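User: Need the bound-state model for carboxymethyldethia coenzyme *A:
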Amino acid sequence: MSSLKDKLRTKIDPMRERVQSLIKEHGAKSISEVSIKQAYGGIRGVKALVTETSALDPYEGIRFRGYNLPQLREKLPKAEGGGEPLPEGIFYLILTGDIPTKDDVKEITQEWQKRGELPDYLIEILNSIPKDTHPMTQFSTGILSLQKDSVFAKKYAKGISKMELWDPMYEDVMNLLAKLPAIAAFIYRKIYKNDEPIPPDNSLDWGANFAHMIGIDKEEFKELMRLYLVLHSDHEGGNVSAHTTHLVGSALSDAYYALSAGMNGLAGPLHGLANQEALRWILKLMDELGGVPTKDQLKKYIWDTLNAGQVIPGFGHAVLRQTDPRYTAQREFALKHLPDDEIFQVVNSLYEIVPDILKEHGKAKNPWPNVDAHSGTLLYHYGVKEISFYTVFFGVSRAIGVLSSLIWDRALGLPIERPKSVTTDWIEEQVK
Ligand code: CMX
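Assistant: Bound-state model below.
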């Protein structure tokens, strides 16, 4: 039995009691109302989901179990000689609510190394997918293909108490997280590097090993991977990838079904695909304007994009009303490691120019940059120039948060999710 699982077990009963007493004593109290505008408007702002792992404040940004990003970058264990937090640490924190020790994190690294090998049948499936299929489709297919090995599905089929379901879910989650970097790297090497996969190096932590299997062993890129995998891991429960994973899991579909579905949501251009779109847009403008543009050239380009009815990718957010702290963390990384990079210079200028233009344009409620405005620049700098692959990096990281929530969903015995829908006829009747 792992000490992580033991620790989790000790957290579950007190949490169940808290939730049960809230429902018993205050279950009828209202925490949100829904206007007609919200019902037609993407349910924005309606508080109807409970997610323990992280909470998003419009002005302060994300807090993971109460800790903001600067605190986490300071408090979470780092690799030997490294300056960025290890993703294993954010997994431990998100799952248990406690900051891990170095030993806690080491145990997770070792556990994921043990479980990380890809089965032959998965390799065959991945190899049979046409190379020009979008990497996110291949990633989602890879995840779903592993479903036949779900411990959760097997235990469920045999018969298991509802209150014990979190245990096989934990096993599926650990198996999946262990394999995701290898699946992603396999797809990357298959599509872009002549079908030449790189075997894992089990002397490395999860993020560094991912960088290694991608084919970039530079220490700075390993640091970037660790930071990247922490930053994208969780963004409370209402975003499309988190909400989808939770919803599918609520039908007691296992982690493979649920995560694959969540990844399909992440693949949308208004969500995770925005990271590829943001860099694609920047490279296109640099190509058309002949390198690093002047501010006047940029202003015109931004207006041309808006006037063509398109969004400025990487700007705006459904909840945030400030610069995304995940953007700021990546900006700090760029200022430290690649201040002279030409694309970073453009990203810098966009940061100065776009918000004022979006304010003048008058539509976006949040004119500030989000996480996706910056991430591509960093990946590109270190040699990952295949933009269509960027959302897969996001997916590997997002799995940490949404899968941790899935364990908690089963630990709390949450029911199948089934909100009520209404028709426009019904709404018209109400307002008469
Ligand atoms: N550029 C131009 N217009 C924008 C805009 C942007 N970056 N952001 C919002 N708008 C527009 C919307 O398209 C909408 O226009 P319509 O009224 O014509 O439909 C209007 O402003 C109001 O939108 P909003 O309430 O501010 O934003 P939403 O909550 O509806 O959508 C988001 C949020 C992120 C989808 C939107 O800001 C956007 O499309 N941004 C660009 C894509 C992007 O960066 N996505 C990544 C988000 C992070 C993530 O989830 O991964």
